[in-house]
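Hi all, posting the design record for the shared folder.

TITLE: backbone redesign
STEP: 1 of 1
STRUCTURE INPUT:
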């Protein structure tokens, strides 16, 4: 197992380990799939169709991110019990921290982990000189949309399909 490292200065108990896309494939695919099972398109599929679709979409997403964001930090999130709880893809840019993807396994949702990790990202981005904003695309039907709004993110545009929001949190913006 690769050594743990810090991609953000954690306030929470979550640690980050660099992803090995080959060795971590099953875990990453599981997180990807579990984060998308609530989708109407997936709900109507047979188990075989669902597995095929999730595998295809997971591979396409990873290929896209690695190609388009080669300097991003790709991490497995690990809790205080050394359990893998989710994944974080974070691209620290000159003027912003872009959360490319954050996902937790269902058994770890609703426990404040996502809020802690996003809060850590906000704290680090704001402590940079000059302070940076934090941005993310959030799907319209995502249960996490309210979390981002409560953390002070604002929608600055809707993608052309109308299915997701580009959200930003400017430095110094208080939580809602």
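Okay, here is what came back for every position:
SEQUENCE:
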């Amino acid at each position: 197992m690769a050594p743990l490292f810090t991609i953000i200065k954690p306030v929470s108990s979550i640690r980050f380990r660099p992803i090995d896309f080959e060795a971590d494939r099953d875990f990453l695919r599981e997180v990807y799939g579990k984060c998308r099972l609530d989708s109407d398109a997936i709900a109507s599929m047979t188990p075989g169709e669902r597995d095929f679709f999730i595998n295809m979409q997971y591979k396409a997403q990873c290929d896209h991110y690695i190609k388009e964001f080669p300097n991003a930090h790709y991490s497995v999130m690990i809790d205080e019990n050394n359990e893998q709880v989710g994944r974080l893809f974070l691209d620290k840019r000159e003027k912003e921290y872009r959360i490319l993807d954050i996902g937790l396994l269902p058994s770890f949702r609703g426990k404040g982990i996502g809020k802690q990790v996003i809060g850590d990202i906000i704290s680090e981005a704001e402590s940079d000189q000059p302070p940076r904003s934090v941005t993310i695309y959030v799907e319209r039907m995502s249960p996490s949309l309210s979390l981002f709004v409560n953390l002070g993110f604002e929608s600055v545009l809707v993608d052309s399909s109308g299915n997701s929001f580009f959200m930003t949190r400017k430095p110094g913006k208080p939580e809602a």
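COMMENT: The two ends are 39 Å apart (CA to CA).
Let me know if anyone wants the other runs.
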